[in-house]
Design goal:
Shape: globular
Order of helices and strands: EHEEHHEEHEEEEHHEEEEEEE
Number of helices: 6
Largest sheet: 6 strands, mixed
Number of domains: 1
Strand content: 15-25%
Strand order of the largest sheet: 1-8-9-6-3-4
Oligomer: single chain
Distance between the termini: 40 Å
Structural class: alpha/beta
């Protein structure tokens, strides 16, 4: 039995929402994610990666560097991905330190190029380790049920066959060929809404930089709501979680269709808001902060 929480495709919906006027009569209520008294993932957590399909060494290094950078040393320039991740410490239970563990390359498409939910579960069950997260990453030519139609990725849990414990997993797909306007925004023109110019991807790869945004969203959701009884708002079957509650916000001054003010490299024109490991730069989404009950941005 598995439980699944989905990054729904909501960018196009957000683009069509009206903005509040200064003189609005009804004041917007503060966003609050309720804690449902369940287990959170805290302490040292091993992150195992399954690369399904063809990924270049550079693409793999962009994602591995991102995960490593969430627990990077204080010498990383600010604003940093580690500072962004530190917001998860404000959720009950303290800090979560993510450490990349095993990596499994699966370039021969043994399960084909059209994956069902059961295929993702089979891949996610490869590593049965306590206090770990298994991340299944599918290449740009791999279709997954619901991908681009109603989700850009998902997280859930599988039972450990040995001891019955639940292990968390994440799936994220590369949308470069299938739906970059939905799952790689703001690095691609949106399908609907205002056609503002897309941002330049910080690592020069629209598909993988889009994966980073969705992976960041799902990692935050996994550690703060791993088994559907942690922090979330709304129905348990379609919860708003730590980052998905702040969809479309990357910098201050954001509004539907505009990601907000971010940093721009003067030479390459690439947009980013966080420094990561090995000199990399990333664009990470806003995260809800339990201390302030607001969507917190780095810039």
């Amino acid at each position: 039995m598995s439980s699944i929480y989905i990054i729904a495709i909501v960018f196009s919906t957000l683009l069509l929402l009206p903005t509040l006027t200064v003189g609005a009569l009804v004041q917007e209520q503060p966003l609050v994610l309720k804690y449902h008294n369940g287990q959170l993932l805290k302490g040292r957590i091993t992150v195992n990666l399954i690369w399904y399909g063809t990924f270049t060494p550079i693409q793999r290094s962009i994602i591995v560097d991102f995960i490593n950078s969430l627990s990077s040393p204080a010498t990383t320039p600010l604003p940093s991905t580690a500072t962004w991740w530190k917001t998860t410490e404000n959720y009950k239970g303290g800090s979560s330190a993510l450490v990349v563990g095993k990596q499994f390359l699966h370039p021969v498409y043994t399960l084909g190029k059209n994956l069902k939910g059961k295929d993702l579960l089979a891949l996610a069950s490869k590593f049965n380790e306590l206090n770990s997260i298994t991340i299944v990453l599918t290449a740009k030519d791999v279709a997954v049920d619901g991908f681009c139609m109603n989700r850009c990725g998902s997280h859930g849990s599988v039972r450990n066959a040995g001891n019955g414990a639940r292990n968390a997993y994440i799936w994220v797909g590369n949308s470069e060929m299938q739906c970059p306007g939905q799952c790689a925004w703001p690095f691609h023109q949106p399908i609907y809404g205002p056609q503002t110019p897309p941002l330049v991807a910080p690592n020069g790869d629209v598909g993988v930089d889009g994966m980073i945004i969705n992976l960041a969203t799902l990692l935050a959701g996994t550690v703060t709501n791993p088994f559907n009884n942690g922090y979330f708002q709304g129905p348990a079957t379609a919860p708003l979680e730590a980052v998905s509650a702040c969809t479309g916000v990357f910098g201050s001054g954001s509004y539907p269709g505009y990601p907000g003010r971010v940093l721009v490299d003067k030479v390459t024109g690439a947009s980013y808001n966080a420094h990561g490991a090995n000199g990399r730069r990333y664009l990470v989404p806003a995260m809800w902060d339990p201390q302030s009950s607001t969507c917190k941005t780095l810039v």
